[in-house]
Amino acid sequence: MATGTTGVVNLDDQEHPLLHRTNTNYGTYFFRKLPIELRLRIYEYAVYEDHIIEPIQVEPRSNKFYCEYQMVPDFQSCCEHVDRRVKLTVVPLSYTCRAIYADLQYFCPFYKVNTFLFTNASRIHEYLAAITPQRRRNIWWIQISPSIEKPNPMWSFDQTYPYTKEKKRNDQILALLSQCSGVQKHRLRVDLNLYQHWSPEYTIDVLQRCLDWARDPLAIKDATTGHSFWSLPFFRLRIYSFGPITCPIKKKLISDINGALLAYRRRIGDGPQWFLDMATDSSLQDSAMELADIHFTGEERVAADKAASLRGPPSSRTRQKCKEPEKNLGTPVRVVPKYSEEGILTVPEKSITIQKIRWAEPDVRCSVRWAPGSYKSNTWKTTREDLSVFLAPQWREKLAHFYIDTMGSITLKEMRNTPSPSDIMKIAGADTLGFCTGVRGDKQFTDEWKRITELWEVRRLKLERLERLGGHDRFSQSLSQLEAMVGERDGLSQCVSQLDVRISFIKAEIERSRQLTITST
């Protein structure tokens, strides 16, 4: 079936099995009489949310997100978080009929009228990579509220995923923002909280640095290219404080920051040329998608062949083709392969626990405990897997946790049957688990793995020493028991005499038995 050029739905597809429903929809009063302008206005009122929307990724690497509400009051006040998941109006509305779904997908009113909040740049990266290009172009309002106690020059500080190397991802994030033509006409805003526990001197220093960056983004430390949010014409900085700002120096600095940003925007016009060039740099866009580490990006959704895709169609209306009936219930269940084409386990990391790792031929074997509902079972289940299914970066934390959790209770015998962390590094190779690379997260993991390796060796040496001491103790204990039983010299003579008497008695009994045997013969 054909795919539309701008989205995943093509209502003109004559081969679609639900074409008759589309024709019926077009005959209704809503679509036949109302012009598209009025329909769009109705859609905008329907899908608008009263609060700011924070997209939260359902699982790592997933292209599915749920939303939480964030409520931000007026200027110079603190942020208030509404901690609950949101059932967005756009979801049930898109289920109404194919024609409404196509309108919502093509015109994207949900993305135009709502503000999207992110706590760090990595979440912007993942979300923009996961949605379709059409939706990306129609986002109008993006807000960043970093949960940091110190302002970061690039405004891409990442506390949720500390292994991210921001220098490497900064251009990729900006490349995806270059495709957000709606944001470029409206606003990308960063919120800065002036925390109460900051000293007045430190607060003034923070504002002074912000003023320097607002006047010249090249003043940012390590920003040799000037590629930062501060360089964008649609960038805004909003400063919050807990209570009114009474310090005249702070007031003056905030006013100067706003004036400097305004002067810079007038000076650069439509935007720096490097940012405009990013929108057409295909290699940079491909790099942005790759570093986002999303299983199914927005570009793949549009380009996917829904009928022939091995991974399954992205549109919910044809997912039944990739499901098989569940025998007990008779309902269709999506079939997910247990292993990838490279032989790596594909289940979510949190659904399993590695309980044992043992030497085996021809490979190292692992005892794996599965959580209920994780793989073909509604109860706890244990299977044996080859170590090779875990030799991928997403599983390295599980391997590290196994050694950390095991080290305190493992015996020497079990340790000799278990590959050491250094053995795992040799089996996996330097690149498989991300050892010895220049990426910040990989370097931190490499250092952590070396620490685990050293602790493992210390534990092994300690157990071997205890084993040797234990053998010596048992020998000493036997000698002590013998000495206690024998006693002094008189006790020794007495024991020998008693032993001679016992031997003589046994000899007499043997001779008596022999004589009786001869007589009977």
Walk me through what this model shows.
By secondary structure, the chain is α/β, with parallel strands linked by helices. It has three domains: 50-87 and 114-292, no CATH class; 336-461, no CATH class; 487-521. It contains 20 helices and twelve strands. It has helices at 19-26, 29-33, 36-47, 90-94, 98-107, 109-113, 121-130, 133-138, 166-177, 181-185, 200-215, 248-268, 273-278, 282-292, 298-303, 396-406, 412-417, 421-428, 440-486, 489-520; strands spanning 52-57, 65-71, 80-85, 115-118, 141-144, 187-194, 235-241, 323-325, 332-334, 352-358, 365-370, 381-386. It has a four-stranded parallel β-sheet with strand order 4-5-6-7. Strands 1-2-3 form a three-stranded antiparallel β-sheet. Strands 10-11-12 form a three-stranded antiparallel β-sheet. Strand 10 and strand 11 form a beta hairpin. The longest helix is centred in the last third of the chain and has 47 residues, at 440-486. The chain is elongated. The model is unreliable at 1-5, 73-83, 153-166 and 306-323 (pLDDT under 50).
